[in-house]
Amino acid sequence: MTTVNAIFNNEKANQNGQLFMAFGFLLFTILALGIDSVVFLENYFDGRTLTNFLAISYFALFFYFADLHLRKLMFAMVFLSYIGELIFCTLLEMYQYRTDVIPLYVPFGHAIVYASGYVFAHTRWAIRNEKILRKFFVIAFTVLFLSVGFFLNDWFSLIFGVFFFLLLKRKKWQNLYYFIALCVIYIELLGTYFQCWTWVPKTFNTIPTANPPMGAVFFYAGGDVLLAKIVEFWERNKVKPIPS
Q1: Is 54 helix (H, G, I), strand (E, B) or coil?
Q2: What are the pLDDT digits (tens) for 52-93?
Q3: Phi and psi for 96 in degrees, rounded to 5?
Q4: Which end of the chain is less enclosed by CB atoms within 10 A, N or C?
Q5: What pTM did the predictor assign?
Q6: What whole-number distance in Å separates Cα of residue 156 and Cα of residue 113?
Q7: β-pair partners for 95
Q8: pLDDT at residue 205, as a whole number
Q9: pLDDT of amino acid 14
Q10: How many Å apart are CA 77 and CA 121, to the nearest integer?
Q11: What is the mean pLDDT of residues 30-54?
Q12: Residues 77-107: b if buried by 16+ CB within 10 A, e if exposed
């Protein structure tokens, strides 16, 4: 009985730790991106190295509190997101960072964003209100895509917002993707505000794009689907798990 209680208490502590890290992500993002900002550079020093250190440290702490499944997701996300950066930033030039190189903190930041949305989506409150939240999210994101499309001439978001909903339809409208999308929007707004990165005015030199475009959540959602399949393959083939 003592052993069972110890395991239960440990799992509860890990869940509380995950939730703490997920909420902490909201404040941590302001700090980390603020240090990498143009304003910080002009008034103090180039904070890129410090932001790299902070992001990797926060990732490591989040990883420590995460359960085994989330650890696999975070681990795989680091590599998957870096590949995505090479495609969307370097190859397709859809956005650019304030320096020519992709910051080291970015792939770790993507993993933190994903993990935060994942934790929020799996809280008791989110699960208990799943149906109501699903209806709310559909309406809210529809209004968001239409608003930025017509008021900001962001045709990128109109187009890829449709693809976002089509993707969610295939995934049975799981709220997980909405929660991750909210975290993505949050970090995109802060990152562009601090001028850590900037989206080009016209994607593919054709599609009018806001800075940042809300439709970018489609690409994150697509990456999330691929990430889930990678980890599913990992677990199905019984790859040796990451040690605690």
Answers
A1: helix
A2: 999 999 999 999 999 999 999 999 999 999 999 999 999 999
A3: -145, 145
A4: N
A5: 0.90
A6: 22
A7: 199
A8: 94
A9: 80
A10: 17
A11: 97
A12: bbebbbebbeebbeeeebbebbeeebbbbbb
Return the CA Rg of the chain. Answer: 19
**How far is residue 199's CA from residue 89's CA, in Å, rounded to a whole number?**
9
Residue 140 one-letter amino acid: A
Rounded alpha-carbon distances, angstroms, from residue 147 to 141, 152, 170, 194: 10, 8, 25, 23
Count of CA atoms in the C-beta half-sphere (13 A) of 5: 2
Q: What is the pLDDT of residue 9?
A: 42
Collect all residues with Cβ–Cβ distance below 8 Å to 78 and sequence separation of at least 6: 59, 107, 108, 110, 111
Report the amino acid identity of residue 198: T
Q: Which two tokens stand for residue 58?
A: 């926060």
CA 114 to chain centre: 4
pLDDT(195) > 70:
yes
Q: How far apart are CA 183 and CA 217, in angstroms?
A: 10
Can you read off the two tokens belonging to residue 67?
Answer: 């359960």
pLDDT of residue 230: 87
d(CA 79, CA 2): 40
| Cα 1 from Cα 27, distance rounded (Å) | 40
pLDDT tens, position by position, 91-114: 999 999 999 999 999 999 999 999
Mean pLDDT of 17-30: 96
Q: How far is CA 80 from the centre of its chain?
A: 12
